User: Fold these one by one.
Assistant:
Number 1:
Amino acid sequence: MEGVIYKTLSSAEAKELNIQTQGPKESEAFVSAFLKRCLPGLREEVIQERLNRKAVILEHSVKQKKKQKRKRRKGLSAKEKRQLRLFEIKAEQQRYNLFLPLHNLWKQYIRDLCNGLRADTQPQMIQTKLLKADLHGSLVTVKKSKCPSYVGLSGIIVQETKHIFKIITKDDKLKAVPKCNTVFSVEVDDFISYIYGSRFQLRSSERSAKKFKMKGSIDL
């Protein structure tokens, strides 16, 4: 039986298998249709050629699914954040006492950053640490400004952007003070440092990686 693809069953075999016998034409048509379904990529002439020469290996055709690139979910843009008012401090939250715990945490943060503030601690070292420190919660005072109305303003920094400090004052008012042309003082445990806003126009996240150069003189 080697090399036989299909043949007519005898009446005894058909009776044993409980099937209805078919003639050679029906059997050939069935086999041809079956091979076309199993080998969709081959033409009929090629299938017939292979039947005449050798056995046919049936393969299951699987369509390769294209890998879809996973889209990285982008965060909100600055415009969308402004529209949603994510960083807006509501009027009922603009109270100095609410931010005193933040100020106390900031003072402890600076003490740890400077390995303790002792009497023999070098002021230059504190100044260097403050340049790269997060100032949210610090108590600052405007010492000099080209806008006289800002001079003497004091409060806790509750928000910082590239160009402004938002300060909550002791009389529960939220003030936006521009960094440009303004000198701020920061006091921690009797150590006073000065921040020249014109040289400080960076976001806090960018400031931590910036290398500051010593300047001989700084003008407002």
Number 2:
Amino acid sequence: MASVTVRDWALGIVSLLNFAFVFITGADFIRFISFRAIYHNITGETTLCHDSVPWSVALQDSSVLRSLAVDLGLLVLFATQHSLLAWSPIKHALQSVLGVLNRTAYCFTTALALQVLIRYWQPVTGAPCLWSVRHAPWSIWFPLLCFSLHFLCWAIICSIFMIFDYPELMGIKQVYYQCLGLGDPLSYKSPRAQRLLSHLRHPVCLELVVVLWLLPALSLDRLLLAGTLSTYLALAHSLDKQDLDYLCVKLNNKMQLFAEPQQATVDTTEMDNLNQKEK
């Protein structure tokens, strides 16, 4: 086992700081893409749309067009970062320069692009909504239903990340293995796992689509966000039935792992009851 040097400590600190930044960005992204839109619809504090404005007038409004142009530029920035750094020639070039921090740098730049998108996103309030639930009792119950389904989707997404070896996904495991002289952690995974990761590192397609589109009110800027990210997600992945079967097997293994302590408790209780009857 290799001895841990000062350089190794520095790499570990960098990876942990990156993990903290990615975690904060993830919380901001959930608030931006999901709960904020539902909260505004429930409270009514912020006007998302102006239904009294005709579409012909709204689409000629300079403020609406300016906001859409800014939002589209932010989405292009994120898609460019996420695709360019995953492109094989760029990926190999960065690997030769950054070494074990290559995955860390990819996650950091992704989180940075998301922070820019969140901070500079321009809501379009001068155009009508494509749909809006405003009549009782659905004006109360439908936002609560959306909130519940969004919460469930984010819980599923987080569980999938845990199944997918979250430390390796964030680049922490690469640094840890480098410090111990174990090489690339991806080489220890099964061929089926490597095949799945080569198709998509985070297969959360259906859950993310539900979060993007299931809202009480769909404004014009949200249509742009949901349509662009859904299209990008559909074009970016190449998952197939073999990947789905592997995911189901991993999920069943995790569920059995969580059920084993409970089963052991039941077996122990039954043995105690039998012993008492024998006595």
